[in-house]
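A common beginner's mistake is to predict each chain separately and then try to dock the pieces by hand. The better habit, illustrated here, is to supply every component at once so that their relative placement is modeled jointly.
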Amino acid sequence: MKKLMFLGLLSVFLYACGGSNANEAASKSASTTPDASNPSYDPNRGEGKFKSVDISGSLDATMAEAGSKIYAVKCGSCHKITEEKLVGPGWKGVTSRHQAPWILNFITNTDEMLNKDPKAQAQLEICLVRMPNQNLADTDARSLLEFMRKNDGVK
Amino acid sequence: MRNSHIKLLATACIGIAIIFNACKPKNVGDAVSSDAAAKAYVAPGKYDQFYNFVSGGFSGQMSVYGLPSGRLLRVIPVFSVDPEKGWGYSEETKPMLNTSHGIVPWDDLHHTELSQTNGEIDGRWVFGNANNTPRVARIDLKTFRTAEIIELPNSSGNHSSPFITENTEYVVAGTRFSVPPDNVNGDVPINSYKKNFKGTISFISVGKEDGNMDIGFQIQCPGVNFDLSHTGKGVSSGWFFFSCYNTEQANTLLEVNASQRDKDFIMAVNWKKAEEYIKAGKGRKQAVKYAHNKWNEKTHSATSDIKTEVTVLDAKDFKDLCYFIPCPKSPHGCDVDPSGEYIVGSGKLAALIPVFSFTKLQKAIAAKDYAGDYDGIPVVKYESALYGEVKKPGLGPLHTEFDGKGNAYTTMFVSSEVVKWNIKDLKVLDRAPTYYSVGHLCIPGGDTKKPNAKYLIAYNKITKDRYLPTGPELAQSAQLYDISGDKMQLILDFPTIGEPHYAQAVSADVIKNNSVKFFKIEENAHPFVSKGEGETKVVRNGNRVDINMTCIRSHFSPDNIEGIKAGDEVYFHVTNLEQDWDVPHGFAIKGANNAELLIMPGETQTLKWVAEKAGMFPFYCTDFCSALHQEMQGYLRVSPAGSNTPLMFSTGKNMPAVEATAPAADKK
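With all components supplied together, the output reads:
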């Protein structure tokens, strides 16, 4: 099957990186006007270090298994793997609702995304609990994505 | 706008000061200058320049302030229980307060000392002493938590502690009360003091990497009161100096009877020599009993071991180990300047401050220039060790710190002032009033080789009219002075917790970047951890019930628990699944006879709770965690002893299936 490449607008835009310390992050409220009007913001990619993600058409079972374990420790308290919302939305269909870089950026750069990203903010208005940053390593985040894909039927 | 406010404030302060002038030291009117507020101002959201670790005195804890703002950042529980943090109440923390006398829930923390490398503060640990039931604590500055507590045998009233050597090789602990040693019968007449009582100083070794404390050796000395101490450094490396009073060896009405002699002593100890004797097997093994308690960051639990032996050197048996230097009138502070050459003794009742020279002391020892001996320990002639005296410094000198620019600053308890004087020419350069009755003082790094002398903080025993009245008991206070210029300038007053004695301060850069933000859940090795809700469970074993529970914003799992019976001992092992900074969860259950838990991200803590009677017992999160914090709750159902309510636990599943009204509990 064809190899899919999720491409962010990688070299076109430079994002201000670092600089934002905890104090500044905390002082930004969720009601800050989102950057949706900012043409440099790509709402499909979100804000964070992931610009594109190499994804094979078929499932990486080892990675999905690792992701399943991380899910049990760090995610399962709030997210079901069905469509049912618990504290946060159910994961069924998440990989078709969001592009891969967006998912990886959201789960690794949670606070900034909640402060900035229109889709993340819309979700927060429904759930009302800011998703905790669970301090996932990049490889952990990627494994979780694979677990989400498995949950969405990729074989 | 801000400037005019500041001026107004300053004018008001001066006005008030004039009104109260009658009972104050002179020159109060100009004690606060107009730019004081600006100097102590740290804008909202900005960090302070210094951490200030302040002893809590009879609170038993250590407080952490930011300087120059004087903002209280944290109170670290050390020797006293703290129900707010579950310290001494959770099953994991109880062993930290264990001693040879069992659990001791309170103590009196007098002095703080930051760890050093090459005579400079390295920001790794801060030590504190327990004055009442003699112990020394090590606090880890990555977590700002008490990591270790060691008890001291043969001691009572651990006052001249926890001062350290230049590379934190040792923390010392000198006994304030001399007592009969622990291995002999202490049931002797009190007035047999001279015969039966001994003064012991302990050298606690500190692991270079892990900080692990162990009693390296003790030196048994004549029965006197050891008061304070400081390490030699630079030229006096390898030596330690202890002030002692009650060389009269009085056992009653010390106020009078221990103030008879014109001079008491500063005891100089050659600890490198002591190490040699220990290595050569010259120490005497003595049977004792003391507790050594350690916190494990992986199991999130403490262990307490009782140790049974200590190695002792008898000072009188080793002629080149200890020397007494006569020091006027019950010396209190015993402070060594940054070069290590000058040793300042502060005789509480003396009208002068003697400054001793280490070089002269060495010459006197080499020449055996002794005035005699005291219980077998050589007494060096006063003049032979003396560099000079600061004349008429003030009344009641107590403690001295240094600025690294050739000056010393001494607190005067009776005349309520800090006096700045030059070490070389011994001339008084400046005086600043304190409000009132100053005890200790602190300059960042002021007892090290490298002071960072921007500020001086005076810790006062009496505040009287400084703050709004709060009934008979008033806060004690700290006062911040800018000492960057020639004259000391008072810029801020701030209240403190407990009673501050000694304090230390260090540039924030040395510590702030090492601060742990959360504990990794993957590394949690607590025996009752739940790594994810899938691992939560409730297990009955006789009348003991273990509940492995998780919490995350914003629910507990399980949050419905049934089948507990009256008389059960229930252990709530609560794991915080959060992996983010500043998101602790609290756990409290109705009727708990101990306290709450405050569980840091990634940590597991345990609350023991005894089910007294049948009924419904709600539990909830005490630390506001999210918009749905008020929903973070659960129920524990207790059935009568002997009932057959099945053990059940769930989250989000225990929906009404049948019309069940009380007392249908045991229908099934």
